[in-house]
Structure to design on (468 residues):
């Protein structure tokens, strides 16, 4: 009964196919939270698949309604071994993005797990079914090896993350005492690279905005009206061009952080993004001048145009359109106040003569930015545990470039947050042909087993924590 024997047990669990058996069943459940017709699969996933798995491990489970209307339920699984022990809160999500069946390449489908070499294809493999399945299997491994965990676990699994986690913050506020813990340990998102274990401490926030120019109803023949009617597509294109340059530098400086903290810069020194084969090359001249690639991605704000529509792009006609709309996005780091973004953009556009460009949020909600201090003792503990298991110093990212509902844990529950991802950037997350890599799953199961073993043996004392 040693750390090494526990990790060997975890390795056998993967090599003998038991994790893949679990993932096969879970991928087959069409838990598309964005499609109302799939709503009942969200209930079934928790009731018929996840709850029984936890109960076999000695957890009590309860499936609770989401405070947000039309959002999926939330499961809480608890194993309290002693009130004197430290408690870890864990998180995952059982819902997936739309299947997009007709866009997957021939031979694979979103609802059937299929192996091709080191890749396992299926919707939810990377996001998030494989990730929470790995963490559940690691808990099971430690219990089997040790006969107990040696700490308490509260595992929360939601089913509306792909909708932006509506209701999750309110759920955490309503259940603050029940969810009380010492640290959050969870898994989502990608590693820095496929071959390097990664630990990240928070996420960038995200705000999606619509920019619209609405001059008139209908379109008018360009031969009869060209040169006489203002073209909303042209006006909107120039308005966006005054927000961000053709090299990706944001010109509205009020949208940006004042500076990058020194300990964040230091943490990113050995975290340069390095695309794996098949992933796009980095455009080195894109973005904020003077920053490293890691700083641009993990420590700075960006403004992106996600979609631009005017007229009928699928069937253009010789007419001047009456309207134009662009959906844009701001990714922002901790320390920036998103409430200031729309007023700053409004002032900027007005000052440049674009008063007729309307700005509105795509959704009323947004995801806030969070970042645990890289000097927090929990970070040192987790990093050393991962290094001990893998023999590799993990990449420690103060936050990932994407967004998660981490503010629910960091702000509402006031927890230090540690995220150990079991995917990689080229996984086609949210796209057709989503997949997860077998070597990452296998290593991820070893890493989490080591973390949980170490949590019981050498946990961080809450009294030793500094800033969060």
């Amino acid at each position: 009964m040693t750390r090494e024997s526990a990790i060997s047990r975890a390795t056998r669990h993967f090599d003998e196919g038991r994790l893949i058996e679990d993932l096969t069943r879970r991928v087959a459940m069409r838990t598309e939270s964005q499609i109302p017709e799939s709503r009942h699969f969200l209930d079934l996933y928790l009731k018929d698949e996840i709850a029984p798995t936890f109960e076999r491990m000695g957890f009590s489970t309860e499936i609770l309604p989401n405070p947000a209307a039309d959002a999926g339920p939330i499961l809480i699984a608890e194993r309290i071994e002693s009130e004197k022990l430290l408690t870890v809160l864990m998180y995952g999500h059982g819902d997936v993005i739309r299947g997009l069946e007709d866009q997957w390449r021939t031979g694979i489908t979103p609802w059937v797990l299929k192996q091709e070499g080191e890749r396992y294809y299926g919707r939810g493999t990377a996001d998030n079914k494989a990730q929470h399945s790995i963490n559940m299997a690691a808990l099971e491994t430690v219990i089997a090896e040790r006969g107990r965990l040696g700490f308490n676990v509260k595992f929360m699994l939601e089913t509306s993350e792909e909708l932006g986690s509506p209701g999750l913050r309110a759920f955490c506020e309503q259940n603050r005492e029940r969810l009380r813990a010492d640290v959050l340990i969870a898994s989502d998102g990608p590693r820095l690279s496929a071959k390097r274990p990664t630990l990240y401490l928070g996420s960038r926030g995200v705000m999606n905005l619509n920019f619209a120019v609405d001059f008139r109803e209908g379109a008018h023949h360009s031969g009869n009206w060209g040169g006489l009617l203002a073209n909303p597509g042209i006006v909107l294109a120039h308005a966006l061009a005054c927000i961000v340059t053709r090299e990706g530098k944001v010109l509205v400086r009020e949208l940006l952080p004042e500076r990058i903290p020194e300990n964040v810069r230091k943490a990113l020194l050995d975290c340069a993004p390095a695309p794996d084969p098949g992933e796009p090359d980095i455009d080195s001249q894109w973005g904020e001048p003077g920053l490293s690639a890691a700083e641009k991605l993990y420590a700075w704000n960006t403004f992106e145009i996600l979609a631009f529509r005017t007229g009928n792009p699928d069937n253009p006609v010789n007419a001047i359109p009456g309207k134009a709309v662009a959906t844009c996005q701001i990714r922002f780091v901790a320390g920036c106040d998103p409430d200031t973004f729309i007023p700053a953009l409004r002032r900027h556009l007005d000052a440049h003569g674009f008063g007729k460009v309307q700005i509105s949020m795509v959704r009323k909600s947004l995801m806030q930015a969070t970042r645990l201090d890289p000097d927090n003792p929990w970070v040192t503990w987790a990093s050393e545990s991962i290094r001990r298991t893998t023999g590799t110093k993990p990449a420690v990212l103060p936050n990932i470039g994407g967004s998660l509902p981490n503010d629910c844990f960091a702000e509402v529950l006031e927890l230090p947050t540690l995220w150990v991802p079991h995917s990689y950037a080229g996984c086609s997350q949210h796209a057709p042909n989503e997949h997860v890599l077998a070597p990452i799953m296998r290593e991820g199961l070893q890493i989490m087993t080591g973390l949980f073993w170490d949590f019981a043996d050498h946990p961080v004392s809450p009294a030793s924590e500094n800033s969060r």
Summary: The chain has a mean pLDDT of 95. The longest helix spans residues 125-146. Residues 131 and 187 are 6 Å apart (CA to CA). The two ends are 34 Å apart (CA to CA).
